Amino acid sequence: MLKGAAFGGLFWLAAPTLATTLPAFGSIEHLFLLLPLVLAPLGLVLLYGLLGSDGVRPPPAVLGYLQPIAAVSLMISFGFPAGPIAAGLAGLWWFTTLAALVSGLGRLRRRRAQPSAPNLVAALVFLPVGATWLVLSRLGAGPRSFAPLTVFLAALHFHFSGFTLQVLIAATGRRLEECWSRRRLLHRCVAWGAIAGLPLIAAGNIAHSPLVKLGGALCLVLSALGLSVTAFSVGLRAPARARLLLCASAASIAGGMLLAGAYGVGELVGAAWIDIPQMVLSHGWLNAVGFTLCGLVGHLLSVRTPAAADTP
Prior knowledge:
By secondary structure, the protein is mainly alpha-helical. The protein has one domain: Cytochrome c oxidase-like, subunit I domain (Cytochrome C Oxidase, Chain A), CATH 1.20.210.10. Helices cover 81% and strands 0% of the residues. Helix 1 (2-18) runs antiparallel to helix 2 (28-51) and helix 6 runs antiparallel to helix 7. The longest helix has 30 residues, at 240-269. The protein is globular and about 50 Å long. The N and C termini lie close together (5 Å).
C-alpha cells in the first residue's frame, strides 16, 4: 500500500491535466482526492500497525488490492455530474471503507486492550460514515435542508477529522506511553475530545442547533491544539529522519485549527471573516498536506514497517 500511495500521489498531481472534466488543481474536490489516493493507504498501513503490538502487521492483502482501484474509481466519479453514474463509481470506495471497518474491528478484537483503541475504532467507523456522505454527494442527494456543498463538506470532514486525525492521535498516544504523565493526561483529553467533536457538529447541523455545532467545533479545535503540543513533544524525540516531518505536522494542525475556529465563530456571529475558497487555500492545505501527509509519513518513518511496504 505504500507503493500505491506513491503512485497515487503522482496520479493526484497529474489528474487535472488528464481530463478537463476532473477537478481543477487546488480546488476543494481536488484537495479531497488526496485522501483516497495518498492519505488513506498511508493511514491504513499505520492503523493496522497500531492494531498490533510490534507495528509491522500490514493490512489484509485484499484491502491492498481493492483500495487503489476504489480510489481511481472515486476520482473518475468527479468527472461526471452528480447522479447515478457518479454515485456508482463512488460506491466502490464506500465498499472498501466498509471492508476496512470489518477487518480492522476483527483484528482489534483479537488484540489486548490498549489506550489508543477508542481512536482506532473511531477511525474505522468514521471512514465509512464519510464514504456514505460522499456517495450521497456524488448522487446529488442528502437531507433537504442541506446544500450540496454541506453534504460534500460532511464527507470531507468525516474522512479527515474522522479518519486521519484519529489515526494520528492514536499514533501519537502510542509514542507517549512512556513519557511524562501530564502529557499523557493531556493526550487522553485530546483523544476523547476529537472523538466527540465530529458527531456533535453533525448533530448540530441536522438539528439546526448552532450551540451544539459550536460545542463540537470547540471540542475539535481544542483537541487539535492539544494534539499540537503532544505531537510536537513526540516529534522532538523522534528519529532524525522523521523529526522534521512530525514537528511540521504539529505546527500545521495548530495553524489550521486556529483558522477553523475563526471560521466557525465568524459563521456563528454572522461575520464572513474567512470564506470557503480562502479556507481551502489555508486550512485545507495546512490540514491535508502539512498536518496529515507529514504526520503519516513521519510516524511511518518512526517504526519498522517492512512487511507493509511489500503489500500492494
